[in-house]
């Protein structure tokens, strides 16, 4: 490829990274707000959060992108630029999936920990902030890592509305050179490289968070293996 075509691809990579960061930040905010709301003591709060989750989790991300980009201007009279339309659609959609990760991790915290917060006269928010979240967040990281990779791959959907992301740029190069195999192989490798970096960063974050609350990944793995052996009689060795 010529330098000009490589520049076009690199601009597409930068657009994809920007879209990934913005939509991931929105998805994370939505995940925690909705996920915490789904454990709220008031049924109406749980109902609204659950309704949001079911709607956005049960609809197509591609159709949501088209709806935000093409329907919102007609319905409300204002137009989002492609970057913010993609960010809003992807962030809200993947945030619905993330809210279930948050809800599950919060419910997995030992009830005795919450009871200890009550005994210390903590308010519900203090119990959530000081007791529950520090223990739940490290357990969310592996699932959030998978969701982040899915979000990265989902960013390719914005190319269908003409946004100059990596997939859109690669298609322009393919049309210019008529070399589909070479171009799309490069694109696959670029997506893989970004996903690999994200995975390593999330694993590093998981280790740091678990170390902050006195947990070690190796020790936890050995404990799970020992418990499985005691329960099933299969596998595991006691040193």
UniProtKB/TrEMBL annotation:
<comment type="similarity">
    <text>Belongs to the binding-protein-dependent transport system permease family.</text>
</comment>
<dbReference type="InterPro" id="IPR043429">
    <property type="entry name" value="ArtM/GltK/GlnP/TcyL/YhdX-like"/>
</dbReference>
<dbReference type="InterPro" id="IPR010065">
    <property type="entry name" value="AA_ABC_transptr_permease_3TM"/>
</dbReference>
<dbReference type="InterPro" id="IPR000515">
    <property type="entry name" value="MetI-like"/>
</dbReference>
<dbReference type="InterPro" id="IPR035906">
    <property type="entry name" value="MetI-like_sf"/>
</dbReference>
<protein>
    <submittedName>
        <fullName>Amino acid ABC transporter permease</fullName>
    </submittedName>
</protein>
<feature type="transmembrane region" description="Helical">
    <location>
        <begin position="49"/>
        <end position="70"/>
    </location>
</feature>
<keyword id="KW-0813">Transport</keyword>
<keyword id="KW-1003">Cell membrane</keyword>
<feature type="domain" description="ABC transmembrane type-1">
    <location>
        <begin position="13"/>
        <end position="202"/>
    </location>
</feature>
<keyword id="KW-0812">Transmembrane</keyword>
<keyword id="KW-0472">Membrane</keyword>
<dbReference type="Pfam" id="PF00528">
    <property type="entry name" value="BPD_transp_1"/>
</dbReference>
<feature type="transmembrane region" description="Helical">
    <location>
        <begin position="12"/>
        <end position="37"/>
    </location>
</feature>
<keyword id="KW-0029">Amino-acid transport</keyword>
<feature type="transmembrane region" description="Helical">
    <location>
        <begin position="183"/>
        <end position="201"/>
    </location>
</feature>
<dbReference type="InterPro" id="IPR014342">
    <property type="entry name" value="Ectoine_EhuC"/>
</dbReference>
<keyword id="KW-1133">Transmembrane helix</keyword>
């Amino acid at each position: 490829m010529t330098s000009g075509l490589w520049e076009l691809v690199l601009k597409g990579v930068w657009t994809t990274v920007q879209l990934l960061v913005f939509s991931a930040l929105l998805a994370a905010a939505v995940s925690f707000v909705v996920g915490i709301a789904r454990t709220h003591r008031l049924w109406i709060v749980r109902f609204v959060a659950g309704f949001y989750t079911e709607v956005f989790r049960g609809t197509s991300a591609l159709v949501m992108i088209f709806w935000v980009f093409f329907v919102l201007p007609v319905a409300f009279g204002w137009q989002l630029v492609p970057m913010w339309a993609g960010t809003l659609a992807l962030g809200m959609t993947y945030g619905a999936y993330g809210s279930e990760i948050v809800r599950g991790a919060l419910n997995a915290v030992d009830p005795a920990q919450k009871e200890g917060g009550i005994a210390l006269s903590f308010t519900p928010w203090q119990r959530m902030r000081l007791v529950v979240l520090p223990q739940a967040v490290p357990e969310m990281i592996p699932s959030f890592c998978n969701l982040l990779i899915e979000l990265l791959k989902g960013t390719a959907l914005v190319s269908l509305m003409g946004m100059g992301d990596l997939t859109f740029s690669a298609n322009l190069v393919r049309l210019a050179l008529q070399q589909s195999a070479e171009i799309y192989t490069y694109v696959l490798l670029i997506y893989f490289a970004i996903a690999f970096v994200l995975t390593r960063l999330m694993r590093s974050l998981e280790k740091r968070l678990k170390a902050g609350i006195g947990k070690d990944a190796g020790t936890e793995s050995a404990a799970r293996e020992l418990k499985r052996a005691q329960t099933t009689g299969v596998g595991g060795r006691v040193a």
